[in-house]
Design goal:
Number of helices: 5
Shape: elongated
Distance between the termini: 50 Å
Structural class: mainly alpha
Largest sheet: none
Order of helices and strands: HHHHH
Helix content: over 70%
Bound molecules: zinc ion
Oligomer: single chain
Length: 71
């Protein structure tokens, strides 16, 4: 099954783990809180930044959470 492993590595890329959408949604509240607190959210939730960049649905959710928190 080396092909699968290569495929996973290609999808994940060299920057470390990427979250699934489910994991992303589970962590998103905490991630936004950390961002707003000025903490290193990407370090606290590894893979989140990469997922948000690559996933329009989660990025939209992230932006609406930020907008909510900002109002
Ligand atoms: Zn996603």
């Amino acid at each position: 099954m080396t092909e699968d492993r290569d495929l996973i590595r290609a999808l994940v890329g060299p920057d470390g783990p990427e979250l699934t959408c489910e994991q992303c949604f589970e962590q998103l509240d905490r991630y936004v809180e950390l961002e707003l607190a000025g903490a290193d959210a990407d370090r606290a939730v590894p893979g989140m930044g990469a997922h948000l960049e690559g996933c329009p649905a989660c990025r939209e959710e992230h932006e609406s959470l930020l907008a909510l928190a900002d109002s």
